[in-house]
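sorry for the late reply, my laptop died twice this morning and i had to redo everyting from scratch. anyway the thing you sent over, i finally got around to it. pasting the sequence first so we're on the same page, its 316 residues, then the predicted structure underneath. double check i copied it right bc i was rushing
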Amino acid sequence: MPETLASPTTTTPDSRTPSVRWGMTLGIACYVMWGALPLYFPLLSPAGALEIIAHRVVWSLLFCLVLLLLTRQIRQFVQVLRSRRLLLALSVAAVLVAVNWMIYVFAVTSGHVVDASLGYFINPFVTVLLAVIVLKEKLRPAQWVALGFGLAAVIVITVGLAAVPWLSLGLALTFGFYGLIKNRVGPHVSAVPSLAVETTVLTPVALAYILWLTAQGTSTFLQDGAGHALLLASSGIVTALPLLCFGGAARILPLRVIGMLQYIAPIMQLLVGVLVFDEHMPPLRWAGFALVWVALTILTVDALHASRAMRLSPTR
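ok and here's the structure:
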């Protein structure tokens, strides 16, 4: 069987525009959903972080299988499982996203929502750097300036905390590399089969952990009422839906654009951490976040200028 399942579609500038708009819609939707996640995970108490992750994996796979049947993409799903190259790439992506989930759920359930938001503020810089280093994408001068402000922000926050923000860096690095893999695999595998393969890879371990908790009598799934069980089951949809939107956006948009959109989620998470969970924000942390927002402003203005220039340029 050939390793490449489908070739990227070649389009003219006119036919490409709706796809770009659809990619932007998917990208914005996924980051808004991720931004609201800190409000969801406390509802899953008393389940611990690992139990939540295990249920996210299992229920996400079931949700994906239903979508595969509805969208008639089972054949592509099976083809990807038979492709060594694609299966290996998506297996690495699965491990990265699982580690990212574990760090994130631990951060949210242990009172570190602001640290989680910082991780996703740093994440766009990791993404853009990967685009430059790995994909050889070129940055405009303003984008380099924005990256400089982002690095300064991390340094200021590290000094303010008197410790390296490992939770934040772990989130940024794992999701940055996950996004890179999804961007490279995207032209050959559509979003639903791709996520289905990732969750298929993770499900044996997740299911084994759930069964072990059940045997130990420490599982909260059936011991804390039907409402709690339904909330844990809903983690499949809560997990899969934004990831599917992200996978769809990563197939269409350049990686540097994905990097810019990623600011939506951490802004929402920061607001939730400070306004809802009343997490402490010392002055140097505010200074670090201010530097990040300067970088965001620079990237936004630069993107608007570039978009306007592209619209005004003659069609080749």
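The first helix runs from residue 13 to 35.
thats about all i looked at so far, will dig more tmrw
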